[in-house]
Write a structure and sequence with these properties.
By secondary structure, the chain is mostly helical. Helix content is 72%, strand content 1%.
């Protein structure tokens, strides 16, 4: 039983990282119906930016004092989110906006091309080898202070939750309660009508890419502090899992993306522990296919009218 609980904890931790990346996919798709294949590679760039800041700029390690460590991590998260948000908004302006009225295949190909561009930028700057940071967060079993030593919740897993959950809650509040969030929802429903009603559609789409890019940057920081390593093709694996999470939950639905990420994280964790890591991807996509056969819009998705 302890192993099952431990596996659930690992799965939920991975699922939270998937969720941050999946929200970027589902936000963009909900607004302009584009599958932004470059989003996973933006997440990879975020992890490299965090690597540079942690290892080469601030030089923090496990011996750094806790107040200093917390302050530096917050600065790293802020800088990385700002950098990836700027990159994502620039990609939208250069590669996607000119093709907005083109056939849907054109921006899709452009997104695939941007994915390769970002991968090759990482290869050119950082090389093909894995880049690692020293373990920064102390290896503490949080539950041991409550007399529970058979189940481990590490400081890294707590860090994942502390960073990710407020971002998920904050995004949900922003989209549902703020004026800009209402503009995003109106643009997602009908961009032409939203424009006639006074919504600046181009500005709304740019802000959507800014938010998605910022979430990818935060996920990159969380990933490298959780796993202590990054590599140029990391975005493909995480991007594929995160995109699958968005589709599983219902792409275009924020709550669906989070739910899909949690389910996918659990499937990955249980498959790795009780079956074999080599079978994990096959099981994940088998579950995805089974769900889409019976519910094509995903678990929480709703059928939307075709804008074309």
């Amino acid at each position: 039983m302890d192993q099952v609980i431990q596996t659930i904890i690992i799965g939920l931790s991975n699922g939270l990282i998937f969720a941050l990346v999946a929200l970027g996919y589902t936000l963009v798709y909900g607004i302009i119906e584009l599958i932004n294949f470059a989003h996973g590679d933006l997440f990879m760039l975020g992890s490299f930016i965090a690597f540079v800041l942690i290892s080469l700029v601030f030089h923090i390690n496990a011996d750094t004092g806790l107040p200093m460590m917390i302050g530096v991590i917050l600065v790293v998260i802020a800088i990385t989110m700002l950098a990836t948000a700027t990159i994502n908004a620039s990609i939208e302006r250069v590669a996607y906006r000119p093709l907005r009225n083109a056939p849907k295949l054109a921006p899709l190909i452009s997104a695939i091309g941007m994915s390769f561009v970002l991968q090759n930028i990482a290869l050119l700057i950082f090389g093909p080898a894995n880049k690692s940071v020293d373990a920064i967060l102390p290896p503490v079993n949080v539950l041991s202070s409550f007399g529970i030593s058979t189940i481990t919740i590490s400081s890294e897993q707590v860090f994942v939750a502390i960073v990710t959950i407020p971002l998920l809650v904050g995004l949900t509040w922003f989209v549902s309660k703020t004026r800009q969030g209402k503009a995003m929802r109106a643009t997602a429903q009908d961009p032409d009508t939203a424009g006639l009603m006074g919504v600046d559609v181009n500005r709304t789409i740019a802000i959507t890419f800014l938010i998605g890019g910022a979430l990818a940057g935060a996920a990159g920081v969380v990933q490298i502090l959780y796993n202590n390593t990054t590599v140029w093709n990391l975005g493909f694996r995480f991007g594929l899992n995160s995109f699958t999470s968005a589709v599983l939950g219902g792409i275009g639905n924020l709550q669906g993306a989070v739910l899909g990420a949690m389910i996918l994280g659990l499937i990955n964790a249980f498959s790795d522990r009780y079956i074999a890591a080599n079978w994990t991807n096959a099981i994940v996509f088998g579950v995805l296919i089974a769900i889409l056969v019976f519910k094509p819009t995903g678990l929480l998705g709703q059928q939307l009218a075709d804008r074309a």
